[in-house]
C-alpha cells in the first residue's frame, strides 16, 4: 500500500521524518506492524507519469490527537526541526489547531539511497 508524502518528500528521502499526521477520516484500518511504500505522489499522476518510490516504512504506533497538542519534538519528527508547533500547524499543515488528526509513527525498513 502506498502513502503519499508530497509536502515532505525531502524529509522522507533524508530520513528526518518519522511521524506523519493524516485526516482522522483516513487510514482507519492501519495498524502497528503494517509495511507501506512511501511515495512522492500517489494520485493525480499525469499520463506517462509513474509513482516515485521514496522509502519502505513500518508503522510503529498510531493514535489520535488534536493539532494543538503538537510538541516541538514532534515538529522535528515531522521533519521540520527549528520550526515552532504554531508555524507547523499554520504554515505546513494549514489547519485549525483544534483539528483531530491521526498521528502515525513509523520507522524505515530500507536504507536511504546514496
Describe the structure.
With 114 residues, the chain is of the alpha+beta class. It has one domain (2-108): Sulfate adenylyltransferase (Roll). The chain has helices at residues 9-13, 72-77, 85-93, and strands spanning 2-4, 19-23, 35-39, 53-66, 100-108. A 5-stranded mixed beta sheet has the order 1-3-4-5-2. The longest helix has 9 residues, at 85-93.
Give the C-alpha Rg.
14 Å
The structural class is: alpha+beta
Mean pLDDT comes to 92
Q: In whole angstroms, how far apart are the ends?
A: 24 Å
Name of the CATH class: Alpha Beta
State the CATH superfamily name: Sulfate adenylyltransferase
Shape-level CATH architecture? Roll
CATH third-level topology:
Sulfate adenylyltransferase
Sum up the overall morphology in one term: globular
Q: What is the total number of structural domains?
A: 1
Counted by DSSP, the helix tally is 3
Q: How many β strands by DSSP?
A: 5
